[in-house]
Amino acid sequence: MNIAVIGSGGREHAIVWKLNQSELAEKVYVIPGNGGTKKNVPIGVNDFDGIKNFCESEKIKLIIVGPEDPLVGGIVDYFSDTSIKVFGPDKKAAQLEGSKIFAKNFMKKYGVATGDFEQFNNINSAMKFIEKVKGNCVIKYDGLAAGKGVYVCSSIREAEEALLDLKQKYGEEVQLLIEEKLIGSELSILAFTDGENYQILLPSQDHKQLLDGDKGPNTGGMGAFCPVPFYTDEIKNRIEKETIIQTIKGIKEESFNYKGVIYLGLMITKSGPKVLEYNVRLGDPETEVVLPAFKGDLLELVLSCFDGSLKDFQMEFNDGYFVDVVLTSEGYPKAYKKGIEISGLKKVSDETLVFHAGTKKTNGKIITNGGRVLNIVVNQKTLGKAIDKVYNECELIKFEGKYYRGDIGTRNS
Ligand code: AMP
Ligand code: GLY
After folding, report:
1. 259 within 8 A of 280, measured Cβ to Cβ
2. What element of type H or E holds 98?
3. pTM above the 0.90 mark?
4. CATH class of 2-88
5. What does the domain layout of the chain look like in residue ranges?
6. Mean pLDDT in the chain?
């Protein structure tokens, strides 16, 4: 079977790497791909006509969508009258990620455990509310904001600043949410679903902030690891009973066309797991650890979401721990230089995985082409060994301005 993967990040490189291990996979194209992927096709991820023409000419039978944008834009609906399968939710279901208000109302309707929230449609009414909660809250822009629409506040001043920032970006009449601030440990759960059943991958943790100790500005993700030591059977059961089962029930009852991945961003609080957010796709950088940890055939798993066999799919996982450290360009997540040559890629050991993100191949050289440049992924028997090894490998790869966090996987909770 010929397949097209949409996207250009580390997540998409990991998906292509895993698909290529399947005996069922013939040609695996990436639209548009990066310096680490082969069979790159220079078409934009939101150019549905272009993607369709390409897929028809190359006899592609399956499209796997990496990023949220084309899903929220309706790529699944666009292909619904063709014979090409698109792995992902339809436009309506993609609102679970595209609109935080839609997602919260869905959680409320189906009894998914989550924090309290209030909905506002202008800055003025939100300003009044933050006084009531003494600024101790989380303020969120309703729409897609590439991780930049969430403000975790601890004082009235911080909350006011957040609202003024939102006003500057979107105007006075803006749809937003103010949520209860939850305290606990964060966990990412990625479940494959056919709209009725589900199978979950190993639990993982993302590291969103730029600096060690979870300080500094939020980024697209500085690293991840799996499995997570505090994910006991008791927590696993509570997550399933209190969040996943209700979510899948809601997807079914709303009659969403959803053959894809539902990602639950969870906070494990003293009173149990609560959903912070949904994503309607594989997470990045979580994918770079959870796919190497998955022992089975990814293409078979994806196809089982279309042919009714997901329910009986036997999920198997590789032993040990997987740690991913993201090498970034100096200056990221603000302005950074591009076009810097990368060396040492061949120096890392054979078992180490290097998933490219912001890279480009020119004249046989790999150069930087984004803020998050490379994902270095290591698997070892213990978490400690995986951390030691991944940092040794990170030293071997060199480019001017290389920066990475030094504490991926070392959180105590
Ligand atoms: P989101 O994009 O909704 O996942 O939010 C980004 C990050 O903000 C999350 O990973 C959390 O670290 C934090 N966050 C979001 N919502 C809350 C909340 N209700 N309480 C505490 N932290 C939150
Ligand atoms: N790791 C969070 C995301 O993919 O949005």
Report:
1. no
2. helix 91-98
3. yes
4. alpha beta
5. 2-88, 116-180, 185-312, 321-396
6. 96
